[in-house]
Structure to design on (438 residues):
């Protein structure tokens, strides 16, 4: 993609999200009806005709979700009060937008092939230490990401010392050091993880050095974290952490960056602070709740996990109806996270626990089964509100990714936006790769 294409795509996505904001910028838990039903009657009819069990299946597959709801949405746009309806309908294709696959992006068997290669080079006991405590999908992510930052497969990448950001135990940096035989500096703020990572590196005799540092601390000019002649990498650095890396790297003129963003909502401010000039003039303002929308897809949740999740939501909504009645206040009251073991109890037990947490007194005369029923019915509503909002989760994530891409382009970087692994390995499979052009 050229510079103009990224900018054009951002503007098209920005226009789409702005025009259909009532469908995605809302809090389902606060609603007692479909808030957009009057403006989108055909869409409302479609979601109420869906079987409850069918919703979970649609929600897990973006292409099927778009296919199921798009026809009704198009009818509502055609019959509604929208400006430039033809353009808006054409932009609806962005609801199913996907990232291009890297030219050398390989399938999910690659992690196994990498493991076999390491097995041939090192004894089994050493291999176990190399990938110790790394779950299967995480190892696949690390293996795929490592390949994308390897000049052997990407000739446009200069061979430079590596700066691993938010390293943890340095699993990613360790594999990069091993495969490229190159110096890796791993930055992590938890001293215990640095110690463990340094022990691993020493065992493998790898050129990996850990720096225990707070990524948000003021930078000492005499000891900068980022250098010009470096390749900065970050796999799933959350929210402000990867934004901090982008800003520091740009300030230092770091030649290459390879970043996979995650958890966009983990930010200090109450609302998202745009990076690029395009995003700064956008009418779209994103709260922390809005920033969670791209994360609301699970490709690995099993049937039991999904059942428990549905139960927890219905219980929370049932208690919410109860607390509104008890307090006489029509406002949602957040309840702390519960232990999964509590879901094996009863709804009555849950209500008593939640009431205690919020310092509420529940009358023994209250029919709690009535509120359980209300919770189940409200869950049916919120699932449909969320399902429609989820039409926009991929598009909103692209808006956020392209804000970063356009920001880097404005700073003189040649940027590509691709996926580094399959969506089945992780939905957070976007990679921003930037090379300083001057």
């Amino acid at each position: 993609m050229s510079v103009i294409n990224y900018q054009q795509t951002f503007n098209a996505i920005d226009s789409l999200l702005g025009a259909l904001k009532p469908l995605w910028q809302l809090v389902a838990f606060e609603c007692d009806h479909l808030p957009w039903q009057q403006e989108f009657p055909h869409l409302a009819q479609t979601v109420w005709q869906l079987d409850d069990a069918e919703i979970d299946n649609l929600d897990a597959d973006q292409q099927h979700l778009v296919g199921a709801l798009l026809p009704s949405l198009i009818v509502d746009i055609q019959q509604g009060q929208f400006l430039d309806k033809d353009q808006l309908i054409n932009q609806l294709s962005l609801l199913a937008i996907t990232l291009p696959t890297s030219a050398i992006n390989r399938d999910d068997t690659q992690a196994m092939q990498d493991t076999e290669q390491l097995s041939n080079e090192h004894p089994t006991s050493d291999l176990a230490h190399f990938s110790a405590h790394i779950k299967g999908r995480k190892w696949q992510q690390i293996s795929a990401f490592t390949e994308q930052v390897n000049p052997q497969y990407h000739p446009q990448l200069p061979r430079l010392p590596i700066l691993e950001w938010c390293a943890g135990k340095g699993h990613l940096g360790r594999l990069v050091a091993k495969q490229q035989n190159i110096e890796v500096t791993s930055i992590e703020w938890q001293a215990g993880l640095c110690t463990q990572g340094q022990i691993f590196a020493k065992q493998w005799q790898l050129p990996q050095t850990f720096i225990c540092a707070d990524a948000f601390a003021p930078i000492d000019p005499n000891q900068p974290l980022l250098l010009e002649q470096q390749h900065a990498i970050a796999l799933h650095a959350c929210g402000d952490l990867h934004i901090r890396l982008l800003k520091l790297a740009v300030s230092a003129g770091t030649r290459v960056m390879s970043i996979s963003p995650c958890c966009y909502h983990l930010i200090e401010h109450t609302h998202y602070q745009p990076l690029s000039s395009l995003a700064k003039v956008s009418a779209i303002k994103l709260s922390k709740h809005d920033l969670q929308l791209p994360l609301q897809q699970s490709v690995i949740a099993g049937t039991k996990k999904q059942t428990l999740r549905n139960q927890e939501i219905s219980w929370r909504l049932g208690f919410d109806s109860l607390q509104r009645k008890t307090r006489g206040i029509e406002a949602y009251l957040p309840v702390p996270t519960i232990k999964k073991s509590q879901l094996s109890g009863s709804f009555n037990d849950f209500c008593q626990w939640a009431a205690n947490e919020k310092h509420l007194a529940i009358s023994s005369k209250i029919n709690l089964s009535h509120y359980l029923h209300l919770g189940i019915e409200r869950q049916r509503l919120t699932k449909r509100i969320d399902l429609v909002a989820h039409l926009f989760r991929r598009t909103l994530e692209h808006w956020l990714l392209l804000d970063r891409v356009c920001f880097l382009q404005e700073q003189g970087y040649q940027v590509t936006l691709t996926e580094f692994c399959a969506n089945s390995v992780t939905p957070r499979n976007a990679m921003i790769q930037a090379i300083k052009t001057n």
Q: What stands out?
A: The radius of gyration is 24 Å. The beta strands are 162-164, 184-188, 208-212, 231-238, 256-262, 413-419, 430-436. The longest helix spans residues 303-327.
